[in-house]
Amino acid sequence: MKASLTFIFILLCFFNAQSQVSREALPFGVNSDGRLISVFENLKNKTKGSKIKTDKISGSPYFEESFKTAQIAYFGEILKENIYIRYNAFSDEMEMAKSESQTSSEDALIKNKKVTCTINGYTYKYLAYIKANEQPAVGYVKELFKGNKFSLYVRETKEYKEGVKAKSSLEGSFPPRFIDKTDYYIALGDGSLKQTKLSKKHIVNTLSSYEQEIKSFINLNKVKLKNSSDVIKLFNFLEEI
After folding, report:
1. Rounded to whole angstroms, what are the CA distances from 69 to 79, 99, 197, 208?
2. What does the DSSP 8-state code read for residue 27?
3. H or E element in which residue 216 lies
4. Where would a tag sit more exposed on the chain, N or C end, judged by fewer CB atoms within 10 A?
5. For 148-209, where are the alpha helices, taking DSSP H only?
6. What are 232's strand-pairing partners?
7. What is the C-alpha to C-alpha distance for residues 197 and 206, in angstroms, rounded to an integer?
8. pLDDT at 181 over 70
9. Which helix (H) or strand (E) segment is 158 a member of?
């Protein structure tokens, strides 16, 4: 009898250990039956906060003030729970909310290249990029085109400018304000994101090995590559070569 009880006890311990291992082997936030738990808590960081009182500044740190439903991809897995996101373009953070009606948040999506979010059809990624005459940096970029050979991204941010008081009646005063900044980046294959400008000259310089093909495309389609839609058409053309 004692031997039987000992055997049953060992068997229960074995199955309990196996269950624990199975749970720990699953991706963070997923339990053994595949449902996501505590998604919000698992994905969030605290926002950095700002020492600037934004109510006294002209403009906004956001391009879109309201929270929008976002599709979050966490290490390749699409999360099913509703998460609401708005991009703080000044602090470069994806602020998180539990409802669209929220007007503020102290929570931000964790910054990781394996965590992406899609808002209004555009996917935002946290990637390294190289801006002209600056050290490499990391930040959020919006994916405009993703092909096998080429990718096009835009980084839309807000920059804070101090107010300026007029020194005389002949000069104008400027309040403290947020100004919009837009930079475009091109990547070849899985290579680095390198800054470019939307113009024939800069696109050709960035993709010098495709100079003849680019010139042929421009002559055939009568475009100047001064907007992202023309560059996307070019990339679709080059992808087929």
Report:
1. 12, 9, 31, 40
2. P
3. helix 211-221
4. N
5. 200-206
6. none
7. 9
8. yes
9. strand 150-161
Sign of CA dihedral 65, 69, 82, 107: negative
Whole-number Å distance between alpha carbons of 58 and 20? 54
End-to-end CA distance of the chain: 78
Report CA Rg, the chain.
Answer: 25
The residues facing 186 across adjacent strands are: 152, 194
Question: Is residue 54 within 8 Å of residue 61, measured between CB atoms?
Answer: yes
Which residue's entry shows tokens 């990718």?
151
Interstrand relation of 122-130 and 193-196 (parallel, antiparallel or unpaired): parallel
Instruction: Report the pLDDT value the prediction gives residue 241, as an integer from 0 to 100.
Output: 85
- Which tokens go with 229? 């839609």
DSSP for the chain, written as a single string: -HHHHHHHHHHHHHHHHHHHHHHHHSPTTB-TTS-B-SHHHHHEEE----SS-GGGSBS-SBSS-S-EEEEEEETTEE--S-EEEEEETTTTEEEEESSTT----SEEE---TTEEEEETTEEEEEEEEE-TTS--EEEEEEEEEE-SSEEEEEEEEEEEE--B--SSTTS--B--EEEEEEEEEEEETT--EEEE-SSHHHHHHHTGGGHHHHHHHHHHHT----SHHHHHHHHHHHHT-
Mean pLDDT of 5-9: 42
Q: Which residue has the higher pLDDT, 164 or 14?
A: 164
CA 160 from chain center: how many Å?
A: 21
Cα–Cα distance between 94 and 125 in angstroms, integer?
A: 11
